[in-house]
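We modelled the chain as a single entity of 267 amino acids. Its sequence is:
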Amino acid sequence: MQRLAVAVVMALAGVILLTSLGCVDEAKYNSVLLRNREQEKLIQEKESQIAALNERVNALTARSGDAQRLLAEKEEHLAAVMKERDEVRKALDQLMKIYGDLAKRPTVNQTGIPREVQMEIRALADQFPGVFTFDEATGRLRFNADLTFDSGSNVVKPDARTALAKLGQILTADVAKAVKVDIIGSTDSDAVKKPQTIALLKELNKATNNQGLSEARAEAVAEILKGAKVEPARITTKGKGDAEPIADNKTAEGKAKNRRVEIFLSQ
């Protein structure tokens, strides 16, 4: 704008000068006026270009601010991720140390049961969740009596019978020929009162109490294993009645745990 004002002033000065000299030539005046207009137009174009460039500079400045803000957020996120990575790596190092310590320890196997047999029984337990559990360290299979027998009965239920038959197949394999089978029955502390249970125990020549019922159930399990071709000489049975509870007989949950048949495998 300053350039435009200067041009206008110079043009007026020229006109005034020509007028004061009394020698105004119309052609020269028109020529000066034309050049002045061209100069004005050129100045306006330059000013438009300057305005456009200023707008672009402002836009780029704004974008630069956004980019810097995004960069700061990215750096903050990156720092958080790196911190999390370091924490995970620290936890992994701790786990690897624990694993290394465990790997140095000798394998605990109190039973001497071949590893192959242990793995097959573990897989069998997974097939029958709730029916029985398997403790590899002690070679103990614990059958839930409520899922193995009806109340007051020594008749093995279908699922438990199937599981026991498959256990028998595992125990008749060549690798398991030397494995011994000890079967122990246990009950809760509730007295035997059902007439049908008492009649059953009398028929089996058993005492009409928890001791007799625990013996009858242990022998019923043994018969299924024998039916699967496990040699009778490898099997022993025993009933302990309510003599060895593993839970409180004052609660229903405790009584359910105490009603059980356990098979101990050893070699």
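As a brief sanity check on the tokenised model: The CA atoms of residues 25 and 31 lie 10 Å apart. Residues 2-103 form one domain.
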